[in-house]
């Protein structure tokens, strides 16, 4: 065995063993503290309305901003991790999350809550969550898929426990003191970050030769007539900004890859209705006469079912039968989400709402397990991180505006049924759009492949959205850490 191979084994020693499992435990806790935290906001909906004399639309901006910032902050978190490392990003996120909730306990208006709990806590949760998932990629190589699947159970645990804890604290000491306690709980993200100590052998992305677009273009300028220093500096700044956008927000993929284009638009449209039941289910139950304790239990049911169904969905979708067809499973799960909303429209009795939560939880488990796996199927792996940046930013826009817009409709009609009608419309239409569009693209690809003749010009029939090299398909993809936030 060569000395280089022995050195490689020594450098990789911390991975997949020992302290790596402590990092995995920290990642489970992080996902419960960050993504799971947003599940409890509906418990405070009615109390915040009374406190600030706010409408449904005004109150719903608070959770919308929090969840939207949690998604949209992905590119900023990537830059932070690159500059300072995962441990720093996780601990900074914990400080911001705790500060945001402590500040929220002193808010005098609903608009102040948008800034403290919405923006500051949402951004802190984004840093802690996404940097924590990235750290798993450093500590796990062989067992990376298993580690990500186990870490995602933290989301389901958070969905189960946060609403119950919230309702208990709300009854005992009011929402202000509860938010103060939440600030202290979220500071535990800093403890999780401290566990994620750096290791010597971080996987490094291959550096492109010559940094196209910056060094090459600057060399061309310098070889000709030398421009003024200020002009060269402005050109360099513009070039670097363009490279940053290309790296973290891949607009070129969106314009060239039809599958990515359809999928991104479909998921963005879907998010207009996906978050609505999570925001308005508890207010709807209380408005219909369900006791507050039992109404909070509904969200916990959603999380509890997810703990068991999400791993099963991941195993099912990984079967070779569904390879290349996961988009249809995903569309089916979205369709089931939309159809399940009609259950609670029939009646607001607690038993019916429990049935609704079970059905919705099964469907959302499929959506959560597949949303980023499908993205990996339609985008080349070496551009996945940049495609993910644009994907999360676009979906955050509809997450932000969806609940407040529907809140206006509820304020006008005083009827919560419109929440579920609207959610069903967006979910069902998105499911049909994605399913039928991918079916059409698949048929189009088959027709192009069938019409190819060796003597023809290859450029006439080339489909540039997916790699067609059979050797590339046979090689295993590089290790990629993907973020599941649904």
Automatic annotation (TrEMBL):
Protein's UniProt name: MOT6 protein
Topology with respect to the bilayer: Multi-pass membrane protein
Gene name of the encoded protein: Slc16a5
Residue ranges of every copy of the Major facilitator superfamily (MFS) profile domain listed in the record: 20-447
Gene3D superfamilies: MFS general substrate transporter like domains
TM segment ranges: 21-45, 61-81, 88-106, 112-139, 146-165, 177-196, 262-283, 295-315, 327-347, 353-375, 387-406, 418-441
Subcellular location: Membrane
Keyword Manganese carried by entry: no
GO molecular function, one term: monocarboxylic acid transmembrane transporter activity
